[in-house]
Amino acid sequence: MIDATSIRERFCARAFVVDDAFATALQLTLALEKPLLIEGPAGVGKTESAKVLADVLETRLIRLQCYEGLDAMAALYEWNYTRQMLHARLTEAGALSLDEREAQIFSEKFLLKRPLLEAITEEQSPVLLIDEVDRADEAFEAFLLEVLAEWQVTIPELGTIRAKRKPHVIVTSNRTRELSDALRRRCLFLWVPYPSLAQEIEILRVRMPGLSERLARQIARVMQALRGLPLQKPPGVAESLDWALALMSLHREHLDARTMEQTLGCVLKVYEDRGVLATHRTILDPAMEDGAPAGEPGGRSLDPDFGIGSVSTPRH
Fold first, then answer.
1. Is residue 37 within a helix (H) or strand (E), and if so which, with residue range?
2. Beta bridge partners of 159
């Protein structure tokens, strides 16, 4: 069994930084064969952690993306009606009886496996990612509880199919709605917050080896400042990495007001948040000045008109 230290090292080798709490939670998930419910704001690496775990375990990742209106059949299986109809027509003139033809049509070769059934029928334990479970409705959550409890499903035409190997299950939630107590009891739990300043700098170093030390500090400091504002969509680590990649592609060695204005779309994804930033623009000054020698653009304050043009009333 992989211990927490080994998990941290293997994740780091794959450019994914996890702390002791995260690594220990993954270790217990593997040891106890219980699902791990990971909650936290969007963009902090919940989904990515499942992908990296599958790579670490050298197994398949199976992802069930949840959404409003998702039902059991869409997550379990469907019949390939087109192939069934074609097969039925081709065998009409054959010597098979009606029961024999029906048995052929409703055999496994006409079955379209969806993520939950795929996870149950894998020869090697896969990593099953149930992503954004809070987007699905309560009826689907109740169905999911049955699957997680028994690891078997019943298909009327084929009978009961039991898991060959229990999947390693990661369940993620952005807390758009409250999950049931029953689901929480079924899982181990991990809360993943936004990273601290030091953690974010480390993440940027690991994921973006070509990023300058100064720029990594500036990006992390600006992100910390932005997350302290009343934004509709605070930027996550995903936005930090996108921003770093954008700045590197523009050959920027440091962050200044002009560059911030040019690349703001990498960070803020909601129109109204630009207005919030415009009214709190001075809060970014200390972050923009980080490590900038006197007289360089990175050492100056944001333009007094920063963001004003971007928050004017749009024309229709």
1. strand 36-39
2. 155
CA distance 36 to 75: 19
Q: Position of tokens 């991990």? A: 190
- Residue 290: its pLDDT value, please? 54
The DSSP H or E segment spanning 81 is helix 81-90
CA 239 to chain centre: 13
Pairing mode, if any, of strands 36-39 and 188-191? parallel
- The rounded distance, in Å, linking the Cα atoms of 238 and 234 is 11
- The residue extents of the domains of the chain are 4-191, 197-297
For residues 93 and 205, what is the distance between their CA atoms, to the nearest angstrom? 68
Q: What local confidence, expressed as pLDDT, does residue 292 receive?
A: 44
Tell me the sheet residues that pair with 39.
173, 191
Task: Quick: pLDDT tens for 132-153.
Answer: 999 999 999 989 988 888 888 8
pLDDT in tens, 57-100: 999 999 999 999 998 888 998 888 888 788 778 777 776 777 77
Rounded to an integer, what distance in angstroms lies between the CA atom of residue 216 and that of residue 223? 11
Q: What is the pLDDT of residues 202-245, one digit of tens each?
A: 999 999 999 999 999 999 999 999 999 999 999 999 999 999 99
In this structure, which amino acid lies at residue 136?
Answer: A
Domain 4-191: CATH class, spelled out = alpha beta
**Cα 195 from Cα 238, distance rounded (Å):** 12
CA angle (248 as vertex; 242, 253 as ends), nearest 5:
125
Rounded to whole angstroms, the Cα distance separating 188 from 23 reads 13
**Neighbouring residues of 216: CB distance < 8 A, sequence distance ≥ 6:** 201, 204, 205, 208, 244
d(CA 130, CA 75): 10
Q: What's the rounded mean pLDDT across residues 293-302? A: 41
Place of tokens 């006409």: 110
Contact present, 222 and 287 (Cβ < 8 Å): yes
Give the position of tokens 């090292």. Answer: 9
Nearest to 111 by CA among 147, 153, 146: 153
